[in-house]
Amino acid sequence: MNTPTDLSSYTRVLKLASTPSREEFWQVAKIAGGGIALVGLMGFLIFVFMSFVPGGP
To answer: Is pTM, for the whole model, over 0.90?
Structure first.
């Protein structure tokens, strides 16, 4: 690990990074929330399906 080179690349990335606008943040939050809800719904549907299968929980 070459520390001076690593630190300069980290500094370069931080200089390029910017704070997202409020609209951009809400768009990303809605997409992420929808993905979490979709995965939860899929898990619930699998649980319900497995409840009706003989030998399920």
So the answer is: no
